[in-house]
């Protein structure tokens, strides 16, 4: 029953005040219980006595009522304190988990997965808060209550008091016999829950695809199997819990019966009066209340301990980044971003970049092209400093990347990803993520730059138009345009477009590229695009293959080289022509 988890103890700051209040109220209720038992046993023991007056009887009844009232208030306040402790624990735990999650960059988010982040911040917290509101107060209370009751009972029957105390101490290791088994079951429970949650979220997100290919029934069948497996894991935990309660409750009630037998035998032998025997019986029944409450809390807290292990893995992720502000700026800096001999590999995979060197000249357009998996997006992630190089060096206008904190760097360089993330709320709220202090006029200016201002003006609510959950009320093109407008509001000198038009229709793509071409007049652009015809006017094109630079130059030079780039251009032209003919014939 001793579940002193280091992670949970470390995260308990700000909660010990409430834990102390709960323990104090429980002790008040305990003292009230003992006092109530003494009043009742004394009253019943003397009720047949000729010396008992009506005034004495009334006083006993009044004392009992006052004591009962104090106990009731203590119980009610205990419930309120537990609620307050629970609320504080949830707030504190989620704040710590979310703060850590916000420290994670893209590389670590991908490593732990979104499902782990969700279960850690939602399900895990719900399990962990029981540890603070129930278990820790119960543990402290349990260390005090049996010894207090031992002292009260030993005044009447020392033998009974010793037996009760010995059994109370023995129950702890007996209960711990089940703990290891429950720990194993709880670990399996969490794995099954995460597996089920991940599969369910994936199914909901891909429901359209499943419907299109008629795989929803098959998916439902697998989901049912995972649900059944999770249900089985829950039942396995309940079986062990039931077995534990069966044994410990058997010991408790057997001991209470034994205490009653001893009290009755001592009463019959004249070594104990009726009031004393009644006092022993009443307190014997209450002797194990603290232990039973702790056992109940222990089995609930075990889930919290298992959850804490999951949270600990999240909290222990090293989020420190290389940072050396003392690296001097180059005396003759390159006017732009320079990557030198970059080497990077994702965990468990072959190297994504193998000694890549390239220059991104300021006020120019640089394009990265190549087949899928060649390292284009890895370069974009390194430029945004979502992760750091294994080997090599990156400088921006002569300043080493490691001499700049990521949040400072991102004031100078921003990215429009393949899929823009919008949040439920208004157009203005989504834009102000990039510039919280931006005026409505500045927002409209950014929207005008992406050809979306007229649409916003035509809406009844204007900038206060709701975009829906994840931008669900907008078209793909509108979402991407808002993403570009958001990037413009950052006033960053460098903008990365990572396949920013791959998920929109042709009309929206044409408008977005027109916008990008205009931005090229005033910004430094790094463009990653699958449609090679859109980057023909780039000042410099780098062609990547298997994590290396295969060739570089402008469009004319690369076509003249007759290398990989010209091959990709010709192949794409053929595919586009075939697509156009197919549409025309259709």
List keywords for this structure.
four-stranded antiparallel β-sheet, alpha/beta, Rossmann fold, 63% helix, 586 residues, six-stranded mixed β-sheet
Rg, rounded, reads 35 Å
Main β-sheet: number of strands, strand sense, barrel status?
6 strands, mixed
Number of helical segments? 20
Total DSSP E strands: 10
The proportion of strand residues reads 5-15%
Specify the structural class: alpha/beta
CATH class of the domain at 85-315: Mainly Alpha
If classified by CATH, what would the architecture of the domain at 85-315 be? Up-down Bundle
Oligomeric form = single chain
H/E series: HHHHHHHHHHHEEEHEEHEHHHHEHEEEHH
Mean pLDDT metric? 82
| Spans where pLDDT lies below 50 across 5 or more residues | none
Helix percent reads 55-70%
The rounded distance between the terminal residues' Cα atoms is: 73 Å
| Physical arrangement of strands within the biggest beta sheet | 6-7-8-3-9-10
Query: Judging from the principal axes of the Cα atoms, what is the shape?
Result: elongated
CATH fold topology of the domain at 85-315: ABC transporter transmembrane region fold
């Amino acid at each position: 029953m001793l579940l002193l988890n280091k992670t949970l103890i470390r995260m308990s700051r700000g909660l010990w005040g409430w834990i102390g209040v709960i323990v104090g109220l429980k002790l008040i209720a305990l003292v009230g219980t003992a006092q109530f038992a003494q009043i009742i046993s004394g009253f019943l023991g003397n009720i047949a006595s000729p010396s008992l007056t009506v005034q004495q009887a009334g006083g006993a009844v009044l004392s009992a009522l006052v004591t009962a009232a104090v106990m009731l208030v203590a119980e009610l306040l205990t419930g309120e304190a537990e609620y307050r402790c629970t609320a504080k624990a949830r707030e504190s735990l989620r704040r710590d988990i979310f703060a850590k999650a916000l420290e994670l960059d893209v590389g670590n988010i991908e490593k732990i997965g979104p499902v782990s982040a969700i279960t850690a911040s939602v399900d895990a917290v719900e399990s962990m808060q029981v540890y603070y509101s129930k278990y820790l107060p119960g543990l402290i209370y349990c260390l005090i209550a049996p010894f207090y009751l031992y002292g009260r009972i030993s005044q009447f029957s020392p033998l009974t008091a010793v037996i009760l105390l010995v059994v109370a101490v023995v129950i702890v290791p007996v209960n711990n016999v089940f703990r290891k088994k429950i720990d194993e079951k709880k670990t399996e429970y969490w794995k099954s829950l995460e597996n089920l949650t991940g599969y369910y979220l994936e199914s909901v997100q891909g429901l359209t695809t499943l419907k299109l290919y008629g795989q929803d029934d098959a998916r439902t069948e697998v989901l049912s199997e995972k649900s059944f497996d999770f249900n089985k894991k829950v039942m396995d935990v309940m079986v062990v819990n039931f077995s534990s309660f069966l044994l410990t409750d058997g010991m408790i009630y057997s001991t209470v019966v034994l205490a009653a037998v001893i009290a009755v035998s001592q009463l019959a032998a004249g070594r104990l009066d009726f009031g004393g025997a009644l006092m022993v019986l009443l307190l014997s029944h209450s002797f194990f209340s603290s232990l039973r409450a702790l056992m109940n809390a222990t089995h609930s807290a075990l889930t919290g301990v298992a959850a804490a292990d999951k949270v600990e893995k999240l909290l222990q992720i090293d989020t420190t980044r290389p940072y050396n502000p003392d690296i001097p700026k180059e005396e003759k800096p390159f006017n732009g971003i320079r990557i030198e001999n970059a080497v990077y590999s994702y965990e468990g995979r072959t190297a994504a970049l193998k000694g890549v060197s390239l220059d991104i000249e300021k006020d120019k357009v640089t394009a990265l092209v190549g087949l899928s998996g060649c390292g284009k997006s890895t370069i974009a992630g390194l430029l945004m400093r979502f992760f750091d190089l294994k080997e090599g060096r990156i400088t921006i206008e002569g300043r080493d990347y490691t001499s700049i904190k990521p949040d400072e760097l991102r004031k100078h360089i921003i990215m429009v990803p393949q899929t823009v993330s919008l949040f439920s709320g208004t157009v203005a709220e989504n834009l102000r993520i990039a510039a919280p202090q931006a005026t409505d006029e500045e927002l409209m200016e950014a929207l005008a730059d992406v050809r979306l201002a007229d649409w916003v003006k035509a809406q009844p609510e204007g900038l206060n138009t709701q975009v829906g959950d994840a931008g669900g009320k907008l078209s793909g093109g509108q979402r991407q345009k808002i993403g570009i407008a958001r990037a413009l509001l950052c006033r960053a000198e460098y903008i990365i477009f990572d396949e920013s038009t791959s998920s929109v229709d042709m009309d929206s793509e044409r408008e977005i590229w027109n916008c990008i071409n205009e931005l090229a007049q005033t910004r430094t652009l790094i463009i990653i695009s699958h449609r090679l015809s859109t980057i023909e006017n780039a000042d410099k094109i780098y062609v990547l293959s298997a994590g290396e630079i295969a060739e570089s130059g402008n469009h004319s030079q690369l076509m003249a080289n007759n290398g990989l780039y010209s091959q990709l251009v010709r192949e794409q032209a053929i595919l586009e022509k075939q697509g156009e003919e197919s549409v025309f014939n259709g």
